[in-house]
Design brief:
Helices cover about 30% and strands about 35% of the residues. The protein has about 375 residues and is an alpha+beta fold. It has 4 domains: about 100 residues, Beta Barrel (conserved putative lor/sdh protein from methanococcus maripaludis s2 fold), CATH 2.40.420; about 100 residues, Efflux pump adaptor protein, beta barrel domain (Elongation Factor Tu (Ef-tu), domain 3), CATH 2.40.30; about 50 residues, OB fold (Dihydrolipoamide Acetyltransferase, E2P) (Beta Barrel); about 80 residues, Orthogonal Bundle (Helix Hairpins). The strands form 3 sheets. Strands 1, 14, 15, 16, 19 and 20 form a 6-stranded mixed β-sheet that branches.
């Protein structure tokens, strides 16, 4: 009897424990179950934009003019009158060479000229007297001819003296080396106290003009007909951009199309001129250049972040009126201004997802945080085209 009651008690205890275990397991499973929260994603709307049609090339910034300063006379450098790296103006004195030997040469030439001028005056007076005497028969024609010859000799001597004086003054002027152009001067290559010689061809410093500045770029030969066709409508604008092709550095004008195509590379060289008032372009700098040939109106564009690669091509997630996403294939044109240009697949006003695409599935509901619409590029692009 007691043994049967004990077995019943044990079974009751075990049953209670099993029920408790089931309850705890169910509770834990409920806590560990994933919470299906609605994802919050950034969105933007496709917009009709005015985007440039352009030919891209790699460019190098070259100074519009570059001058190496050299001496044209011999002598010791007395003074260096510039600071390395400063902006200099045309005609500004930069280097002074000891002028005393050239000042002495000028004084000597002036004295020689004055002496011959005085002798010419005397010879002309004698010629006038000789002419009178010949007419009266008191002098021979031979003496008259000799006097005419002497006047001619002194006249020629004065011309020689004047040339010698001009040359001496020129050399004296060369003793002060002046900037032939306005620009930025570089490192000083010769210090004061050194003796320089014109025959040594020594470079004292270099000046480069960067207002304006030139960009030399190369484009494929296939782009030449398009550039030539649009050039008939007026000057073409050229954009200089950073290495990432995104940051705009400056806008200039196409100034030159090369006269031949490189046979080895199949490219042609172009030259664009930039005002560069802000000095954002620097000689030797490499840039990505765009020759804008036309403007494309009403191009459907979205941020590049919206476009995703798929097994059948590019696609975007479009948000419908019920805040659900659906993938939509798109065909893209050439990107412009950091935007993806959509040839087919989107209409202006369509909302597209910009992030977390890898967490989305067709038909999934999302909570959209729509970005502010980008300003239209139509006005700015047209203004740039006309400027």
């Amino acid at each position: 009897m007691w043994r049967a009651l004990g077995i019943v008690a044990i079974l009751a205890t075990a049953g209670s424990g099993y029920v408790y275990w089931l309850h705890r397991t169910s509770q834990a499973a409920t806590l560990e179950a994933p919470q299906h929260l609605t994802p919050v994603v950034k969105t933007a709307r496709a917009a009709a934009q005015c985007l440039p049609v352009y030919v891209r090339g790699i460019g190098r910034v070259d100074p519009f003019n570059a001058v190496e300063l050299k001496t044209r006379v011999d002598g010791q450098i007395d003074h260096v009158l510039f600071t390395e790296g400063q902006q200099v103006e045309a005609g500004q004195a930069l280097v002074e060479i000891d002028p005393r030997p050239y000042q002495a040469a000028v004084a000597q030439a002036e004295g020689q000229l004055a002496r011959d001028q005085a002798q010419l005056l005397a010879a002309r007076a004698d010629l006038d007297r000789s002419s009178t005497l010949v007419q009266k028969g008191f002098a021979t024609h031979q003496s008259y001819d000799q006097q005419v010859s002497q006047v001619g000799q002194f006249t020629a001597a004065i011309k020689t003296d004047q040339a010698v004086l001009d040359n001496a003054r020129l050399n004296l002027g060369f003793a002060t080396i002046k900037a032939p152009i306005a620009g930025r001067i570089g490192k000083r290559l010769v210090d004061a106290g050194n003796v320089v010689h014109a025959a040594d061809n020594t470079i004292l410093a270099e000046i480069v003009q960067i207002h304006p500045v030139a960009v030399i770029l190369t484009v494929p030969q296939d782009a030449l007909p398009e550039i030539q066709a649009h050039l008939k409508d007026g000057p073409l604008k050229v954009e200089a951009r950073g290495a990432d092709d995104q940051k705009l550095i400056g806008v200039g004008d196409l100034a030159l199309i090369g006269n031949s195509i490189d046979r080895q590379t199949g490219t042609i060289e172009l030259k664009a001129v930039f005002d560069n008032a802000s000095e954002t372009l620097w000689p030797g700098q490499f840039v990505t250049a765009r020759v804008i040939t036309a403007m494309r109106n009403n191009a459907v564009a979205v941020p590049m972040a919206a476009v995703e690669p798929g097994p059948e091509g590019k696609f975007v997630y479009v948000v419908d009126s019920e805040s659900k996403v659906q993938p939509r294939p798109v065909r893209l044109g050439a990107p412009a201004h950091g935007l993806a240009v959509v040839e087919t697949g989107l209409q202006p006003g369509d909302a597209v997802v910009l992030d977390q695409q890898d967490q989305l599935k067709p038909g999934m509901s999302i909570k959209a945080e729509e970005q502010a619409a980008e300003p239209s590029l139509c006005d700015t692009a047209d203004a740039a085209r006309r400027s």
